[in-house]
TrEMBL record:
It is an enzyme of class 3 (hydrolase). Pathway: Nitrogen metabolism; urea cycle; L-ornithine and urea from L-arginine: step 1/1. InterPro entries: Arginase, Ureohydrolase, Ureohydrolase_dom_sf. This is Arginase. Its cofactor is Mn(2+). Pfam families: Arginase. Gene3D superfamilies: Ureohydrolase domain. One of its GO terms (cellular component) is cytosol.
Amino acid sequence: MSKNIVFLINTSEITAGTRGASLGPNAVITAARKKGSFIFGEHPVEKIKNLNELLDQPTVHQFAKRIDGLVEVYSVLNSKVASVLGNNEFPIILAADHGSAGGTIAGIKSAFPDKRIGVVWIDAHADIHTPYTTPSGNMHGMPLATALGIDNLECQKNEVAPETISLWNQLKQIGGVSPKINPQDLVYIAVRDTELQEDNVLSRFNIENYKVADVRSKGVSEIVKAIDEKLKDCDCIYVSFDVDSMDPELTSHGTGTPVADGLTPDEAKAILNHFANNDKTVCVEFVEVNPCLDEKINTMAEVTLDLVENIVQTLKK
C-alpha cells in the first residue's frame, strides 16, 4: 500500500565531535538535483529547527556537551514526528548527527503511546553511552540510552555535575514516557566499534548485534528474517541508518567516525528495502553524511541518495 511520504530535514549537529554534518542533508538534496532526481519536489519537505549556534559558544557540560540545546531539539522532533505520524504520513528523516535520534523515537512513542516500538539500528557504533560512561562527552553516542531510560551506573567512570544530571533526566522524559523502548526490542546491524561500558550494556540486556560477518556468512535474507522473528511482538518499527555502517573504502570517508570493514552499499540497500516493505515500519532515518570530510567530493551523499530513492520507490508501490 502506497505511503504518504514526508521528508524531515534535521540539520542539528550539536552532538557530534566533528563539524560539517549539518551540511549532510542538503548534500543529499544537491546530489538529487545533480542527478535529475525529483523526489524532494514530489513529496513535502519540512525543516526542523536546529540550535547549531551553540557551537559558537563553549559548553559547560563536560560529559554531555550541549545537552541544554539537545533537550530543545528532542522536544521539537517529538512534536513534529508525532504530528506527521498522526496525519498518517511516513517520515523519512535526513539528519545531521545521530544524537537527535532519541527525539525521533520520542515522537514515535508520542504518536503511538500504547504501541510497542522495535528499533533496527544500522551503525558502526552502539550509541548507548550515558554521561556517566562517555569517553568524549559527545552526545551522538547516547541516543539509545535516552530511549531505553538507562544510566549504566554499573559502569560509571565520570562524576557528572548535578545540572547535567537534571538535563539528562529531562532528555529521557521527553514526551512524558520513559523508557520508550525495551532492550529486547532493539536490534543492531553492523556495529563494530564499541567501548567496554557499551559492551556491558549489550551483554546485560542481551541485545542482538548482527555483525557484518554474519551478513556475509548468512546472507541478508536470513538476517532480516531473524530480525522479523525477534521483533514479531512489536507493533511498529523505526529504522535508523548511520552511513558509517557502510565500508568507507566502498563509499567514502564522508562521515564523522568512519570504521573499516562495513556493509557494502548493496547490502545496505537490501536491508533497508526489506524494512521499507514491512507494514510495521513507520519511520526511516538517515544520519551522519558529512561532505566536509568526503575525499571523493560528494560520494557519500550520492550513495545515500541511492538508498533513499530505493526506499521511496518501495514505499510508493
